[in-house]
Amino acid sequence: MAIKDYIRERFFPHMWCPGCGHGVVLNAMLRAIENLGLNKNDIVMVSGIGCSSRISGYVDFHTLHTVHGRALAFATGVKMSRPELHLIVPMGDGDALAIGGNHFIHAARRNIDMTAVVMNNRIYGMTGGQYSPLSGYGISATTAPYGNIDQGFDIVELAKAAGATFVARTTTYHVQQAAELLQEAILHKGFSVVEIMSQCPTYFGRKNKEGGAVEMMKRMKDITTPIGSKAKEAQPELIERGIFVRKDLPEYCSEYNKIIERAQKQGRR
Amino acid sequence: MSKTIKFIQGNEVCVEAALYAGLNFFAGYPITPSTEIAELLSFRLPQIGGRFIQMEDEIASMCAIIGASLTGSKVMTATSGPGFSLMQEALGYAVMAEIPSVIVNVQRGGPSTGLPTHVSQGDVNQARWGTHGDHAIITLTASNHQDVFAMTVEAFNLAETYRTPVILLFDEVVGHMRERVVIPDKGEQPLVDRLRTAVKSGVDYHPYLPREDGRLPMSDFGGVHRYNVTGLAHDMWGFPSGNPQVVHGLMRHLIDKIQSNAAEIARIREFFLEDADCILISYGSSARSSLHVVQNRRKRGERIGLLELQSLWPFPARIVREKCRHAQTIVVVEMNMGQVLEQVKLAVEQPERVFLANRMDGVFINPTDIRNILRLIQGRGI
After folding, report:
1. In Å, how far is A257's CA from the nearest CA of chain B?
2. Which residue of chain B is at minimal alpha-carbon distance from A41?
3. Does domain A3-268 have CATH number 3.40.50.970?
4. pLDDT at B213
5. 8 Å CB contact of B53 and A76
């Protein structure tokens, strides 16, 4: 199937700014789905609120554009009722980890089979450039005119600690890797998290003098390195890319099916 | 045929009725005095192949039932005041995206943590206007277990008929009281199934294009029609739109589908109203004390009656006006500072004849409380 068959052309052009990284994520996501040969009727994409969350409107799956921060909670209801469906949940960094932080850790803890994609551009884009829990110390934002004093989360560490059974990270510069990781994440049976570092030239770039989209993407290439690379030893501040966690633990919906069996057996007794 | 008769709590009746109505997905979070509903459903739902999940909070619970409803499940959550407050944003989403769902609020004293184990009817207005933005909503209530059963089934039926969230506003006394209830046989109380689209695969399906009768046939997530659902103002495809004409049409549809059917949605019970000079108006557990007072005074020849409201929103204003037309005194009995009182005053022809008999201190309003207030109103002293 051609990539075009996965999008709703009727709803284009999209609303993202020129140079925004979210289009790259959309591309990677569709390539992953195409490679996996999934049936469009078997995919439910659930998103929250923000620039990144508009991604669900553009794709030809069952799409649920919800409220800010709660995409994973809506997705949990869909998945519990129809466990055979593939749930993909794209979120922004503020959406997933500020207002949605509680749902994020609990979905990870349950190990419910869905793929959380955190499109991390370290800023609230839709509301005009406020600092997020991923901005990090010292960053400039419209709500941090004197510099941000909030420490940032590390999405990978947070997801690991919360119990996610698949955790990966890449950037919009590494578009091939993004597609590969998303493919692996969707295939994984359990709660998978893929952080995709993305650029917001309109707000983050401008506020922090990181230049335009090209400069920002080049920067993501320069500040990241594959997991376990020699470069990391020499420069410990480099951010690692790749798969950090991949393990098998009982998946929530499969476990619930066992509950149903147990309950029905007891009922017959 | 032998009837199934049970002697159980109101919360348990709610569970029996929800299962009777076809409930197969429940998400919730523990909160007094509604917790028994979640506990019992965690036991009962898997027995019928349904699904129960305890979420991380009430926000997530409301979100999860919306997601489940979109796959074709009949869904419910249950909570009390503080949890109901947390659900309000997602409740508005269910209004906007037209998601059939049932939300039970077993009311306790508020505001804030208030009186967790004590009765109140303080959430009447929150049920109406808790979520932001202009909207219509359906809210039912009940004073006894037979009605808890009937109204719970009705809530599921109305949710499907109008593609809307329906709020069941019970209170702590009804929720925890034990009383006899007759479980109807299968088929005895009619059920409304989900209206699904007849549009075939490959043909354009418009999820948000109402039929002539205002109803919108649904298509289950996972089925052959892929469409967008959003809390943004949206067009007939479910795609975000800021076009004033589209927004106007959407708002009119959302409000009219309920307000224009207010007469069909209205549910009341009446006792001795034909010749009543004095009419008590009440709902929920306070209607029990009201009925007791009315029955006692009837025995003594007083022309007193009770109008019990089983639907609170849309407020059955027309019925209240007609029933109260010839009454000299109208007394609203409720456990709050007069939330239904205000509606009654707006509804009747002579609002100066409307009085309040209330308690809002966590103590159940009993017949003596009502009698004392009646004596004051009637100028007879206590």
Report:
1. 8
2. B222
3. yes
4. 86
5. yes
| Interchain proximity B227–A62, CB inside 8 Å | yes
Kindly indicate the confidence band of residue A221, based on its pLDDT and cuts at 50, 70 and 90.
very high
List chain B residues with CB under 8 Å of A67.
63, 89-90, 93, 231
Measured distance CA(A32)–CA(A24) in Å, rounded: 12
Radius of gyration of chain B (CA): 21
Mean pLDDT of chain A: 97
Task: Name the pTM for this structure.
Answer: 0.97
Q: Identify the pLDDT of residue A267.
A: 74
pLDDT tens digits, residue range B61-107?
999 999 999 999 999 999 999 999 999 999 999 999 999 999 999 99
CA B350 to chain centre: 28
To the nearest whole Å, the CA of B176 is away from the closest chain A CA by 26
Q: Which residues on chain B place their C-beta less than 8 Å from a C-beta of chain A? A: 24-25, 27, 43, 46-47, 49, 51, 53, 55-57, 59-61, 63-73, 75, 89-90, 93, 221-224, 226-232, 237, 239-240
Tell me what percent of the residues of chain B surpass a pLDDT of 70: 99
State which CATH number among 3.40.50.1820, 3.80.30.20, 3.40.50.920, 1.10.10.10 fits the domain covering B268-377: 3.40.50.920
Q: Once rounded to an integer, what is the mean pLDDT over residues B41-60? A: 98
* pLDDT of res. B378: 85
Distance CA A138, CA A129 (A): 15
- Three-state DSSP state, A172: coil
Report phi then psi at B274, rounded to 5. Answer: -50, -50
Of A8, A82, A259, the CB nearest to B46: A259
- The CATH code of the domain at B4-183 is 3.40.50.970
Place of tokens 């007083």: B302
Q: Give the residues across from B97 on adjacent strands.
A: none
Taking only the tens place, the pLDDT of each residue in B119-128 is: 999 999 999 9
| Contact yes or no for B60 and A102 at CB 8 A | yes
Is there a contact between A120 and A171 (Cβ–Cβ < 8 Å)? no
Domain assignments of chain A as residue spans, ordered by start: 3-268
> Chain A contacts of B231, Cβ < 8 Å?
65-67
